[in-house]
Predict the structure.
Amino acid sequence: MDLHVHVSEAVDLTAFMFSIHNMGRKEDQELIERMLQDDEVEKKLKEIRRGLSAEDHEKLDVFFNEDSSIAPALLPAVMKGHPSLTAEGLMNRLRSMEEKEVRRHLFGRGFADNKYDGLDPKAGKRFVDKLAVPKQEKWKLYYYMDRPEAVNEELAALIEHVYHSFYKPFQQEAADAAQAFAEELRAAPNDPEHPVRRLVRDYMDTETIEGIHVYPSYSLNIGFMLQDLSEENAVHLAIGLKRFSLMESKMNEEELFGLLKVLTDERRFRLLKLLRKRPHYGYEIAEALGVSNSTVSHHLAILLSHKFVKSERAEHRVYYKVNTEEIKRVMGQMERMFAE
Protein backbone atom coordinates (compact mmCIF):
# COMPACT_ATOMS: atom_id res chain seq x y z
CA MET A 1 0.00 0.00 0.00
CA ASP A 2 1.56 3.24 -1.14
CA LEU A 3 1.36 6.01 1.48
CA HIS A 4 0.46 9.52 0.30
CA VAL A 5 0.37 12.36 2.83
CA HIS A 6 -1.55 15.56 1.99
CA VAL A 7 -2.39 18.77 3.82
CA SER A 8 -5.88 20.01 2.96
CA GLU A 9 -7.85 22.91 4.37
CA ALA A 10 -11.03 21.20 3.13
CA VAL A 11 -10.35 18.07 5.21
CA ASP A 12 -9.55 19.95 8.39
CA LEU A 13 -12.60 22.19 7.97
CA THR A 14 -14.81 19.10 7.61
CA ALA A 15 -13.18 17.58 10.71
CA PHE A 16 -13.62 20.89 12.54
CA MET A 17 -17.36 20.95 11.80
CA PHE A 18 -17.77 17.32 12.85
CA SER A 19 -15.79 17.92 16.06
CA ILE A 20 -17.52 21.07 17.29
CA HIS A 21 -20.94 19.54 16.71
CA ASN A 22 -20.31 16.10 18.24
CA MET A 23 -17.83 16.77 21.05
CA GLY A 24 -19.20 15.91 24.47
CA ARG A 25 -21.56 13.23 23.12
CA LYS A 26 -19.39 10.12 23.37
CA GLU A 27 -20.28 7.43 25.89
CA ASP A 28 -16.65 7.55 27.08
CA GLN A 29 -16.63 11.33 27.46
CA GLU A 30 -15.37 11.17 31.07
CA LEU A 31 -12.32 9.15 30.00
CA ILE A 32 -11.70 11.41 26.99
CA GLU A 33 -11.96 14.56 29.10
CA ARG A 34 -9.44 13.22 31.58
CA MET A 35 -7.02 12.46 28.76
CA LEU A 36 -7.44 15.93 27.27
CA GLN A 37 -7.93 18.03 30.40
CA ASP A 38 -4.89 20.26 29.69
CA ASP A 39 -5.01 20.08 25.90
CA GLU A 40 -5.03 23.50 24.21
CA VAL A 41 -6.75 22.35 21.02
CA GLU A 42 -9.59 20.82 23.00
CA LYS A 43 -10.03 24.04 24.96
CA LYS A 44 -10.23 26.07 21.74
CA LEU A 45 -12.77 23.71 20.19
CA LYS A 46 -14.92 23.84 23.34
CA GLU A 47 -14.84 27.64 23.28
CA ILE A 48 -15.94 27.67 19.65
CA ARG A 49 -18.69 25.14 20.41
CA ARG A 50 -20.05 27.44 23.11
CA GLY A 51 -20.44 30.14 20.46
CA LEU A 52 -22.70 27.99 18.26
CA SER A 53 -26.39 28.85 18.21
CA ALA A 54 -29.21 26.29 18.36
CA GLU A 55 -29.78 26.96 14.65
CA ASP A 56 -26.09 26.24 13.94
CA HIS A 57 -26.34 22.89 15.72
CA GLU A 58 -29.57 22.05 13.92
CA LYS A 59 -27.94 22.63 10.52
CA LEU A 60 -24.75 20.82 11.50
CA ASP A 61 -26.76 17.81 12.65
CA VAL A 62 -28.17 17.39 9.14
CA PHE A 63 -24.77 16.71 7.59
CA PHE A 64 -22.47 15.94 10.54
CA ASN A 65 -24.60 13.64 12.69
CA GLU A 66 -22.21 10.89 13.78
CA ASP A 67 -24.61 8.12 12.70
CA SER A 68 -25.16 9.24 9.10
CA SER A 69 -22.06 11.47 8.63
CA ILE A 70 -23.17 12.72 5.21
CA ALA A 71 -20.46 15.36 4.79
CA PRO A 72 -17.51 13.12 5.76
CA ALA A 73 -18.89 10.38 3.46
CA LEU A 74 -19.04 12.80 0.51
CA LEU A 75 -15.62 14.32 1.11
CA PRO A 76 -13.35 11.79 -0.71
CA ALA A 77 -15.53 11.99 -3.84
CA VAL A 78 -15.53 15.80 -3.75
CA MET A 79 -11.74 15.81 -3.37
CA LYS A 80 -11.03 13.22 -6.09
CA GLY A 81 -8.01 14.48 -8.02
CA HIS A 82 -7.61 17.47 -5.67
CA PRO A 83 -5.89 16.17 -2.50
CA SER A 84 -4.86 19.64 -1.29
CA LEU A 85 -8.31 21.16 -1.73
CA THR A 86 -8.99 24.52 -0.07
CA ALA A 87 -12.21 25.51 1.71
CA GLU A 88 -13.28 27.63 -1.26
CA GLY A 89 -12.53 24.75 -3.62
CA LEU A 90 -14.63 22.45 -1.42
CA MET A 91 -17.64 24.76 -1.67
CA ASN A 92 -17.28 25.17 -5.44
CA ARG A 93 -16.90 21.47 -6.13
CA LEU A 94 -19.85 20.61 -3.90
CA ARG A 95 -22.08 23.02 -5.81
CA SER A 96 -21.09 21.47 -9.15
CA MET A 97 -21.26 17.82 -8.08
CA GLU A 98 -23.49 15.62 -10.30
CA GLU A 99 -26.68 14.24 -8.77
CA LYS A 100 -25.70 10.60 -9.29
CA GLU A 101 -22.36 11.23 -7.54
CA VAL A 102 -24.13 12.81 -4.57
CA ARG A 103 -26.43 9.79 -4.26
CA ARG A 104 -23.59 7.35 -4.73
CA HIS A 105 -21.48 8.81 -1.92
CA LEU A 106 -24.29 10.00 0.34
CA PHE A 107 -23.49 7.60 3.14
CA GLY A 108 -20.44 5.81 4.49
CA ARG A 109 -20.48 2.13 3.60
CA GLY A 110 -17.65 0.74 5.67
CA PHE A 111 -19.86 -1.88 7.32
CA ALA A 112 -22.07 -2.79 4.35
CA ASP A 113 -21.72 -5.20 1.46
CA ASN A 114 -23.77 -3.59 -1.30
CA LYS A 115 -22.60 -1.39 -4.15
CA TYR A 116 -24.71 1.46 -5.48
CA ASP A 117 -24.04 3.48 -8.65
CA GLY A 118 -26.20 6.50 -7.74
CA LEU A 119 -28.46 6.29 -10.82
CA ASP A 120 -31.73 4.96 -9.40
CA PRO A 121 -33.09 6.70 -6.25
CA LYS A 122 -35.30 3.67 -5.48
CA ALA A 123 -32.28 1.37 -5.47
CA GLY A 124 -30.54 3.83 -3.16
CA LYS A 125 -33.47 3.76 -0.77
CA ARG A 126 -33.40 -0.04 -0.70
CA PHE A 127 -29.77 0.20 0.26
CA VAL A 128 -30.59 2.74 3.02
CA ASP A 129 -33.17 0.27 4.38
CA LYS A 130 -30.32 -2.13 5.19
CA LEU A 131 -28.12 0.40 6.97
CA ALA A 132 -27.74 0.11 10.73
CA VAL A 133 -28.56 3.74 11.47
CA PRO A 134 -31.40 5.28 13.54
CA LYS A 135 -34.76 5.68 11.81
CA GLN A 136 -34.62 9.48 11.77
CA GLU A 137 -31.30 9.33 9.92
CA LYS A 138 -32.80 6.96 7.35
CA TRP A 139 -35.62 9.43 6.68
CA LYS A 140 -32.98 12.11 6.06
CA LEU A 141 -31.17 9.88 3.57
CA TYR A 142 -34.46 9.03 1.81
CA TYR A 143 -35.13 12.76 1.41
CA TYR A 144 -31.74 13.49 -0.12
CA MET A 145 -31.97 10.45 -2.41
CA ASP A 146 -34.91 12.25 -4.07
CA ARG A 147 -33.33 15.72 -3.84
CA PRO A 148 -29.55 15.40 -4.24
CA GLU A 149 -29.36 18.98 -5.53
CA ALA A 150 -30.42 20.13 -2.05
CA VAL A 151 -27.25 18.56 -0.61
CA ASN A 152 -25.10 20.58 -3.01
CA GLU A 153 -26.48 23.95 -2.01
CA GLU A 154 -27.38 23.39 1.66
CA LEU A 155 -24.05 21.80 2.58
CA ALA A 156 -22.00 24.35 0.62
CA ALA A 157 -23.89 27.22 2.30
CA LEU A 158 -23.35 25.68 5.76
CA ILE A 159 -19.61 25.22 5.11
CA GLU A 160 -19.34 28.83 3.95
CA HIS A 161 -21.09 30.09 7.10
CA VAL A 162 -18.95 28.03 9.50
CA TYR A 163 -15.74 28.86 7.66
CA HIS A 164 -16.19 32.63 7.88
CA SER A 165 -17.88 32.72 11.30
CA PHE A 166 -15.78 30.20 13.26
CA TYR A 167 -12.95 28.48 11.38
CA LYS A 168 -11.07 31.29 9.62
CA PRO A 169 -9.30 32.67 12.76
CA PHE A 170 -8.30 29.06 13.52
CA GLN A 171 -7.08 28.25 9.99
CA GLN A 172 -3.43 29.34 9.92
CA GLU A 173 -2.56 27.63 13.20
CA ALA A 174 -4.29 24.47 11.95
CA ALA A 175 -2.44 24.55 8.62
CA ASP A 176 0.99 25.06 10.21
CA ALA A 177 0.47 22.22 12.72
CA ALA A 178 -0.86 19.85 10.02
CA GLN A 179 2.15 20.59 7.80
CA ALA A 180 4.58 19.78 10.61
CA PHE A 181 2.81 16.46 11.37
CA ALA A 182 2.72 15.63 7.66
CA GLU A 183 6.52 15.74 7.62
CA GLU A 184 6.61 13.25 10.51
CA LEU A 185 4.22 10.90 8.71
CA ARG A 186 6.32 11.05 5.55
CA ALA A 187 9.28 9.57 7.42
CA ALA A 188 9.89 5.91 6.49
CA PRO A 189 6.92 5.76 4.07
CA ASN A 190 7.75 2.20 3.00
CA ASP A 191 7.80 0.78 6.53
CA PRO A 192 5.13 -2.00 6.63
CA GLU A 193 4.63 -1.23 10.34
CA HIS A 194 4.11 2.50 9.82
CA PRO A 195 1.44 3.51 12.39
CA VAL A 196 -0.90 4.65 9.61
CA ARG A 197 -0.72 1.25 7.92
CA ARG A 198 -1.38 -0.49 11.24
CA LEU A 199 -4.43 1.68 11.86
CA VAL A 200 -5.86 0.98 8.39
CA ARG A 201 -5.25 -2.77 8.74
CA ASP A 202 -7.41 -2.80 11.87
CA TYR A 203 -10.42 -1.55 9.92
CA MET A 204 -10.04 -2.52 6.28
CA ASP A 205 -9.36 -5.51 4.07
CA THR A 206 -6.03 -4.29 2.73
CA GLU A 207 -5.54 -6.97 0.06
CA THR A 208 -7.17 -4.85 -2.65
CA ILE A 209 -5.98 -1.46 -1.39
CA GLU A 210 -3.29 0.13 -3.53
CA GLY A 211 -2.97 3.47 -1.78
CA ILE A 212 -3.59 5.22 1.53
CA HIS A 213 -4.20 8.96 1.36
CA VAL A 214 -3.52 10.51 4.76
CA TYR A 215 -4.64 13.99 5.79
CA PRO A 216 -3.27 15.31 9.11
CA SER A 217 -6.02 17.20 10.93
CA TYR A 218 -5.53 19.70 13.73
CA SER A 219 -9.25 19.71 14.50
CA LEU A 220 -9.55 15.93 14.97
CA ASN A 221 -6.91 16.02 17.73
CA ILE A 222 -6.87 12.35 18.89
CA GLY A 223 -9.63 11.17 16.53
CA PHE A 224 -9.69 9.93 12.94
CA MET A 225 -12.11 9.62 10.01
CA LEU A 226 -11.73 6.73 7.57
CA GLN A 227 -13.39 6.38 4.15
CA ASP A 228 -12.73 3.92 1.36
CA LEU A 229 -13.20 4.46 -2.37
CA SER A 230 -13.47 0.92 -3.73
CA GLU A 231 -13.45 2.07 -7.36
CA GLU A 232 -10.04 3.65 -6.74
CA ASN A 233 -8.73 0.82 -4.53
CA ALA A 234 -7.82 3.61 -2.14
CA VAL A 235 -8.40 4.59 1.47
CA HIS A 236 -8.74 8.19 2.66
CA LEU A 237 -7.77 8.72 6.29
CA ALA A 238 -8.01 12.02 8.18
CA ILE A 239 -6.08 11.65 11.42
CA GLY A 240 -5.71 13.88 14.46
CA LEU A 241 -2.23 15.19 15.14
CA LYS A 242 -2.14 13.58 18.61
CA ARG A 243 -3.78 10.26 17.69
CA PHE A 244 -0.62 8.26 18.30
CA SER A 245 1.41 10.16 20.90
CA LEU A 246 -1.29 11.25 23.39
CA MET A 247 -3.23 7.98 23.36
CA GLU A 248 -0.08 6.01 24.14
CA SER A 249 1.32 8.30 26.84
CA LYS A 250 -1.94 8.60 28.75
CA MET A 251 -2.68 4.89 28.60
CA ASN A 252 0.55 4.13 30.44
CA GLU A 253 -0.21 6.43 33.41
CA GLU A 254 -3.34 4.69 34.67
CA GLU A 255 -3.19 1.58 32.56
CA LEU A 256 -5.04 -0.89 34.74
CA PHE A 257 -7.83 1.51 35.72
CA GLY A 258 -8.34 2.54 32.09
CA LEU A 259 -8.32 -1.05 30.83
CA LEU A 260 -10.89 -2.14 33.39
CA LYS A 261 -13.18 0.73 32.37
CA VAL A 262 -12.89 -0.40 28.76
CA LEU A 263 -13.90 -3.96 29.66
CA THR A 264 -16.80 -3.10 31.98
CA ASP A 265 -18.73 -0.85 29.57
CA GLU A 266 -22.03 -2.69 28.92
CA ARG A 267 -21.99 -2.41 25.12
CA ARG A 268 -18.38 -3.41 24.80
CA PHE A 269 -19.03 -6.35 27.16
CA ARG A 270 -21.88 -7.51 24.87
CA LEU A 271 -19.67 -7.01 21.83
CA LEU A 272 -16.90 -9.14 23.35
CA LYS A 273 -19.40 -11.88 24.26
CA LEU A 274 -20.60 -11.89 20.64
CA LEU A 275 -17.06 -12.13 19.26
CA ARG A 276 -16.22 -14.89 21.76
CA LYS A 277 -18.64 -17.17 19.88
CA ARG A 278 -16.95 -16.61 16.51
CA PRO A 279 -15.31 -13.79 14.53
CA HIS A 280 -17.73 -11.22 13.02
CA TYR A 281 -17.33 -8.42 10.52
CA GLY A 282 -18.62 -4.92 11.21
CA TYR A 283 -22.02 -5.08 9.54
CA GLU A 284 -22.79 -8.39 11.30
CA ILE A 285 -21.94 -6.83 14.67
CA ALA A 286 -24.27 -3.88 14.10
CA GLU A 287 -27.10 -6.22 13.08
CA ALA A 288 -26.56 -8.70 15.93
CA LEU A 289 -26.41 -6.03 18.64
CA GLY A 290 -29.09 -3.78 17.13
CA VAL A 291 -26.90 -0.69 17.17
CA SER A 292 -25.74 1.78 14.54
CA ASN A 293 -22.58 1.52 12.45
CA SER A 294 -21.08 4.53 14.21
CA THR A 295 -21.62 2.89 17.63
CA VAL A 296 -19.90 -0.29 16.46
CA SER A 297 -17.03 1.73 14.95
CA HIS A 298 -16.62 3.70 18.18
CA HIS A 299 -16.43 0.64 20.43
CA LEU A 300 -14.25 -1.37 18.03
CA ALA A 301 -11.78 1.54 17.92
CA ILE A 302 -11.46 1.44 21.72
CA LEU A 303 -11.17 -2.36 21.92
CA LEU A 304 -8.61 -2.46 19.10
CA SER A 305 -6.52 0.33 20.58
CA HIS A 306 -6.31 -1.58 23.88
CA LYS A 307 -5.65 -4.90 22.09
CA PHE A 308 -8.75 -6.62 23.49
CA VAL A 309 -9.86 -7.36 19.93
CA LYS A 310 -7.83 -8.48 16.92
CA SER A 311 -8.68 -8.15 13.24
CA GLU A 312 -8.15 -10.72 10.50
CA ARG A 313 -8.97 -10.77 6.80
CA ALA A 314 -10.99 -13.42 5.00
CA GLU A 315 -13.23 -13.37 1.93
CA HIS A 316 -12.40 -9.70 1.27
CA ARG A 317 -13.77 -8.67 4.67
CA VAL A 318 -12.23 -7.65 7.97
CA TYR A 319 -13.35 -9.91 10.81
CA TYR A 320 -12.91 -9.12 14.50
CA LYS A 321 -12.24 -11.64 17.25
CA VAL A 322 -11.48 -11.56 20.98
CA ASN A 323 -7.82 -11.40 22.00
CA THR A 324 -8.11 -13.76 24.98
CA GLU A 325 -4.40 -13.49 25.79
CA GLU A 326 -4.64 -9.74 26.45
CA ILE A 327 -7.79 -10.12 28.56
CA LYS A 328 -6.06 -12.81 30.64
CA ARG A 329 -3.06 -10.49 31.10
CA VAL A 330 -5.26 -7.71 32.49
CA MET A 331 -7.19 -10.10 34.74
CA GLY A 332 -3.86 -11.43 36.00
CA GLN A 333 -2.74 -7.91 36.93
CA MET A 334 -6.05 -7.43 38.73
CA GLU A 335 -5.56 -10.65 40.67
CA ARG A 336 -2.00 -9.76 41.68
CA MET A 337 -3.09 -6.35 42.86
CA PHE A 338 -5.98 -7.44 45.05
CA ALA A 339 -5.74 -11.18 45.72
CA GLU A 340 -2.07 -11.80 46.54
Notes: Residues 249-253 have pLDDT under 50 and may be disordered. The chain is about 60% helix and 10% strand. The first strand starts at residue 2 and ends at 5.
